[in-house]
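Run log, item B.
One chain of 114 residues. Sequence copied directly from the ordering sheet:
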Amino acid sequence: EVQLVESGGGLVQAGGSLRLSCTASGFTFDGDVIGWFRQAPGKEREGVSCISTSDSSTRYADSVKGRFTISSDNAKNTVYLQLNSLKSEDTAVYYCHVEGSGFWGQGTQVTVSS
């Protein structure tokens, strides 16, 4: 059974940092593109960042460039999202997703207090 499990969310003050993890089980990264998405209350889910597990190329939404960093550890089947300089507008449930598949994690809540 394929599973993606996110962790690392929490409550943090504006300007603070968190590190999210997405660990896959039931399959191994094999050149897959893994994306982080987020959904705030009353808003549509939006893409935040993604990484290719083959060449580690990355992409970021304009709203998080320079503040968030995505990375992967293929040996651990884990993708990370380092969130720095957090803002209240970063508050959302963060999900990871294997692009081109139907695999999503259950999400982890990030709440930034101002």
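Observations after the first pass:
- The mean pLDDT is 95.
- The beta strands are 3-7, 10-13, 18-25, 33-39, 46-52, 58-60, 68-73, 78-83, 92-98, 108-113.
Flagged for discussion on Thursday.
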